[in-house]
Amino acid sequence: MPYFVAVYDVNQKRVGKMLKLFRRYLTWIQNSVFEGELTPAQFKSLQTEADQLMQEGDGVVFYQLRDERYMDRIALGKEKAEKSRFL
Amino acid sequence: MPYFVAVYDVNQKRVGKMLKLFRRYLTWIQNSVFEGELTPAQFKSLQTEADQLMQEGDGVVFYQLRDERYMDRIALGKEKAEKSRFL
């Protein structure tokens, strides 16, 4: 299943709603960074919901990987998420 | 050459310094998101410099990919960077 890394950058006023939305679909890694597997339908649905919350100046970036195995995560400083994998 | 996606999440006071540091190594994508190729030596050097700037509560996440071809970037909203690639 495709694996996603998602980062949002939105006005402080909408951070709470975005956090709640992204947590419904993905695993929280650090502040505005999330990861997880999504089916094409789930990804489309997340994009639609994010789009509805976003306003002028807000942005979201998704990185889609064919498989989680194609990447390694290296974290410096706080690692808030429950899952962790270091090189 | 390994391809990196980097996201930092630091106190507002250090955002300017982090931005300046990351721009020396990578391409700016959106607010705190950067991308680019790094040799192992460059990556080590960026990690060391970031570590020196970071303080309590700050965090940086790097995603290392074997090759840029293994991922696709999908951006919603503003796309500030000069490079852009949509699905």
Automatic annotation (TrEMBL), chains A, B:
For Mg(2+), which residues are the binding ones?
A: D9
Gene Ontology BP terms:
defense response to virus; maintenance of CRISPR repeat elements
Q: What is its EC number?
A: 3.1.-.-
UniProt protein name: CRISPR-associated endoribonuclease Cas2
Top-level taxon: Bacteria
Keywords in alphabetical order? Antiviral defense, Endonuclease, Hydrolase, Magnesium, Metal-binding, Nuclease
As cofactor, the record names:
Mg(2+)
The record, for NCBIfam families, names:
cas2
Per the record, the similarity remark reads: Belongs to the CRISPR-associated endoribonuclease Cas2 protein family.
Q: Which residues cross the membrane?
A: none
Q: Which organism is it from?
A: Persicitalea jodogahamensis
Q: Which GO terms describe its molecular function?
A: hydrolase activity; metal ion binding; RNA endonuclease activity
Which Gene3D superfamilies does this one have?
3.30.70.240
Q: What class of enzyme is it?
A: hydrolase
The record's subunit annotation is: Homodimer, forms a heterotetramer with a Cas1 homodimer.
Q: What does this protein do?
A: CRISPR (clustered regularly interspaced short palindromic repeat), is an adaptive immune system that provides protection against mobile genetic elements (viruses, transposable elements and conjugative plasmids). CRISPR clusters contain sequences complementary to antecedent mobile elements and target invading nucleic acids. CRISPR clusters are transcribed and processed into CRISPR RNA (crRNA). Functions as a ssRNA-specific endoribonuclease. Involved in the integration of spacer DNA into the CRISPR cassette.
